[in-house]
Amino acid sequence: MDSMSYILFICVASPLLLMLLPIEKKSRKVVLFMLTGMFCCLFISEVNGLILRLSDMSLLYFTTNITPITEEIIKALPVLFFAVVFSDNKKDIVTASFSVGVGFAILENLIILTQNFRDVNIWFAIARGFCSGLMHSICTVAIGYFIVFVKKKKKIFFAGSVAALNIAIIYHSVFNLLVQSDSEAARTVGLLIPFLTYAILNTVIIIK
Predict the structure, then answer these.
(1) Residue of 77, 68, 79, 74 whose CA lies nearest to 44
(2) Which of 75, 115, 177, 192 yields a CA-CA distance of 20 to 30 A from 139?
(3) What is the mean pLDDT of residues 9-20?
(4) What is the gyration radius of the CA atoms in the chain, in angstroms?
């Protein structure tokens, strides 16, 4: 990964970091988890780049089979740590999960934008900003939500957490596969899936 990714991280993360002291405690947690998500993106982008360079995989195969695994694992770790060490409150964990996903998506979108700046347009921005951003947040929220459910059930905590991670990985992989398809219909379905899931998740959370 070139130095531009680090430049983008510093430019975006620095103002957010400076917000931590003056804002109230609840807001501080959201910003902190967004920063965590950005750092996760920076770290795993380096790891993914190394794996891709050392392998003979095509970019399509890599983004549909490898990056969903590495990215969902790295996003799940701070959520799992927060849930195990600090809180078992559903709202806190869901907020933390969504914030990590948003932070990850922000930096990833900026990196991809700079790598493809000659080809981008408003539709690219909408697809990346809304659809990919939602996808990352939804996957992380799903993991956080499952962790809340299984945390007090010690016998199935490990199995339940792994199951939630697998669901997020499969969802992420299917999204990547659809949006990179040669079929316009498949790409459209892929872009709409996060919106549908987002609506369902919000309905479930509101009802609960």
Answers:
(1) 74
(2) 115
(3) 92
(4) 17
